[in-house]
Amino acid sequence: MPDDFPGCSACGGTGFKIVESDRGSKAAPCACLRENRVEQNLLGARIPKRYLHCTLANYDRMNLSQERARGIAEQYVKEYPRNENGFLFLGPCGVGKTHLAVAILQALIQQKGVIGLFYDYRDLLKEIQSTFRTGSQLTEMGILAPVFGVELLVLDDIGARQPSAWVSEVLSHIIHNRYNEKRITIITSNYPDSAGEQGGPTLEDRVGKRLRSRLYEMCKVIRVDGDDYRKTSRQAEYRF
Ligand SMILES: [Zn+2]
Prior knowledge:
By secondary structure, the protein is α/β, with parallel strands linked by helices. Helix 5 runs parallel beside helix 6. The strands form two sheets. Strands 4-5-6-3-7 form a five-stranded parallel β-sheet, with helices on both faces. A two-stranded antiparallel sheet has the order 1-2. Strand 5 (152-156), helix 6 (165-180) and strand 6 (184-189) form a beta-alpha-beta unit. The protein is 45% helix and 16% strand. The protein has helices spanning 31-44, 64-79, 97-112, 121-130, 140-149, 165-180, 203-207, 209-218, 229-238; strands at residues 16-21, 24-29, 86-90, 116-120, 152-156, 184-189, 219-223.
């Protein structure tokens, strides 16, 4: 199939090279096959355009918690798949939690050949709900099967949608399923662990006690704090 891998001079675009050995010549996979697979896996991860540039190297660290979070993420990627935990990144809006989660996802796809998937929590719920409409081509299971089964799932901004019996059921179905299958899940949330001085809702208020403790079992909790990252970097841009 010429032109499957256009531009590769090593195999002429076929994906295979002829290798000579004592036993004669045989076809062996060309290096471009692997590169192509990585590219496909990056596309398949559904990372939103806004976050496609996010790497561990370009994560802005403006305080110790951000420095520490990046260090842990780097170590994790290097050692993958030695550690069975995922991550739960907690912290206020705009400290770069999604950046870190996407950076880990992209690094593991590129460096370790991982298959991963990014989902915004609210978008996922909306997509599932859209299957309930009559005439929908998709089924609930059609959307959830990859979410259950993918090697690495990033679930961004959990708790962002008002809890209801249905929302809790979907989330616990996903989390318990991945926990039982020992799959890695990286989660971000703007809701704090404890109410703090303002006394606003906590992560437990948004996802329930049982799910919160399950998340703590399967994820290493990383707290990231700091000034609003987007605000600060925008201000930095405005300076000139
Ligand atoms: Zn090739």
